[in-house]
Amino acid sequence: MPRERYRDRDENLYATVDAYHLVENLEQCLQCGKCAGICPVANLSPSYNPRQIISDVLSGSTSRWLKSEEIWRCFWCAGCYTLCPVDIHFPLLMMQLRYLAVASLHGLKYIAPFKRFALRAREDGLTFAPGSAKGRERIMGIRGGIGLTPWPEVSEKAREEYRALFDMTGSTEYLDRIREEEDQPLELTYLEGRITGA
Amino acid sequence: MPRQRVVNPEEKFPTVPGTVFLFRSCTGSLEYPGTENAVKETLASLGIHALMDPDQTCCSGYLLTCSAHKPEVSLAITARNLSLVEKKDLDTYTFCNGCYGYLSELSHIMMHNPAYLQMANDLIARWGYRYEGKTRIYHVQEMWYRLRETIGQKVVRPLAGLKVGVHYGCHYLAKQYGILDDGGYPTFHEEIVEILGGTPVFYKERQLCCGYSVGRGFTHREETVQPHLFKKLTSARDAGVELITTVCPGCNVALDREQPNLGKRFGTVFKIPVIDLSQLIALAMGMPLQKLGFEANTIPLTGVLKKLGL
Amino acid sequence: MPENTKTALVIGGGPAGMEAALRIAQAGFHAVLVEKEPELGGTLRDLHSSFPRWENPRELIDHRIGLLTKSRRVTIRTQTAVMSSVRQAKGFRVSLKSLGNGGREGYEDELDVDAVVLATGFELMDASVYGEYGHGIYPGVMTSLEFEGQLKTWAQRAGDIAVDAPHGVALIKCVGSRDRSKGYPYCSKICCMYTAKQAGLVKDLFPDTRVYVFYMDYRASGKEYEEFVRQVIEEKHVRYIRGRPAKVLPEDGRLLVRAEDTLMGIPVEVAVDMVVLASAIVPRPGTLLLAEMFGARTDEYGFIENEPFEPARSSERVFYAGGCGFAIETAGALNQGAAAAAGVTALFNEER
User: Fold this and answer.
1) Does the beta-carbon distance from B184 to C131 stay under 8 Å?
2) Which chain A residues are within 8 Å of B65, Cβ to Cβ?
3) pLDDT over threshold 90, residue C104
4) Segment B107-127 mean pLDDT
5) Is the Cβ pair C259, A37 closer than 8 Å?
6) Is B199 buried (19+), middle (13-18) or exposed (0-12) by CB count in 10 A?
7) Residue A94 lies in a domain
8) Number of domains chain A is built from
9) How does DSSP assign C63-83, residue by residue?
10) Could you list the residue range(s) of the whole structural domain that residue B254 is in?
11) Each residue of C73-102: pLDDT tens digit?
């Protein structure tokens, strides 16, 4: 591996990476490896290692991670946080790195699939409502059959306010931007699990 | 001195509430409405009225995980939803680990960062809402454990030694402090299973995450999430698990809906049904089958129901 | 006891207490050595060997007991506890109770003393708090002190070919130490050394057994300490893996240790039969009560603390030594016992 020049690394970690002040105890990291030991992703992907990411970010090398695929792999299971002897909330670090990555136009392809979920959620006040009429009918059938209202009751007021919060915070614009920049259509090869009739 | 982590259920709930605010879970109400029913019924039979509010929106946690909107939105949405509960002077009960995790984490952030609380309250003030951090956030699994003896007394369909592999999920145990068990080796769900007459199975990958947060769309799904779920379900199957329970509709989706895909990819058929712990409790307590909504499940419950004589 | 000879009460009969009592007596004063167990020796009695010279702790105990019993100025009170104390003008009136001494159980008596030395030692933290390691759940998981007992048992049966040698043993350091979340933030100082000792002893007993030590660091700062650890790694062939394990899981009758090999950046799973946890060192629970009784100062963890500029003294007429002040090795406990005795004798000489 080529030698890296440390003098070109970012300074002031807390102003750049931890802008939301959610992982202010990163320097307490003992590099013990409990996080990597339990991490389900680290146990599957050779290049993903939460402990190494913390160490690298502390030394100021964030650009490597902003451009990476790795930061998009965290499950947010918080197994790391549960075991960490100094309670570093690693998923919140990943979250912030992801926002930084998107701001520098990396990783847009990873959130592109969620654009439609997010825009639909913005309309519904609910997440994961199926887009197809068939999907919606199926749910209404099951709910009606077990004695619930065919569709979960979310008031018009709730939906308006939810939408307004998206708009006011600039999230709608953020989502639209995803549409305009590197939008790479993805082949999602999985199939929706079938809901059986029995 | 080490901070207190695990609390006694009687300490955490010195009295049993008469009414609670039941926080709607999007995934729960859409994918597994039977869980919503089971939760309401079980609470009712324990003398607790569950109030739901149409003005409540999604907790927005899933979108936060995917970075599909800005954190400010989630903070404001959390403040808005919780202020609804505070207006009714109730405590917040969720039936989804996801909702629990996000509501707890985001409210914690607001309570410890006055600037964020101010920002959230400024955004929601225009509709007359104000979040003060008074409502406490719980998950119904805590109430099931608190009232496990009462539940035991009301069991009319004991589970006939059914081999149940419990899945705790991640976000409740990740809270670490002030919860009913320790994430290192939790056992409180197994205790409930025993009370219901089932046989808990401590399968090797019992504590593995379900991978739901990315299970539905990240590009590395095939590389990471499917092999991961394969590991978990193989471990359950090898230990002879007949039924898996969850306390999160998200986990339920991951473990239930992926099984046919795993079958196609890895050539192994699992066929282990996955239901919410609340549904198992309600089933044991005699809730009519048609209200439990098992038709929403991808892996059918027929085998299990047959074993229980239903 | 002659009326005008000053007397010190030494509470705790481990190496620190024995040393303090001995030195006080050698200086011409009286010492009453109180120990709640039937025998003197403290934690040393539980140990199979010692670092850095692989010596038998029993020899040290026997040597010290010999000197103490010979001394006419030491009164040894085993199976005795200190129940209460009333501070007087220049000393304390203490009430002692027999805990079972062939008919004298429950017998209480009072004693006037002119100074106190607290030497109550340490114990290991309850490792069952670490559910992920399975102490109290899986039979093969034990603390280092429990494992020391196992080593003694194995050594006694060394000639017996029926001994079931484990195929693999994993020793995990920093269980509860250097842990702000579930344990204590401090380093328990001696575990790196005693873990190396234990690992080496397993290899001596069973050369074919695989022995792993899971570590974050190894701290060997003392005379001959570094050489000791290197000997264990290089000559006794113990494998050191850098990484605090995340979990211990049972599988097919064995125990799997899941960790990350941080030097390679690879998650690993190691199958062993026994897991030894170097649990954090904490003061014994009685220490806090005694500190309150005698007005000694303690820190937030219950360890005895010294007065500013007075390394062996905690408060007026109250001295301390050994594990009750913090984690310490035998040599350190002996030195501190001597220092506490020096404090006592200086006080007694001043008041002569």
Assistant:
1) yes
2) 76, 95
3) no
4) 94
5) yes
6) middle
7) yes
8) 2
9) HHHHHHHH-TTEEEE-SEEEE
10) 157-307
11) 999 999 999 999 999 999 999 999 999 866
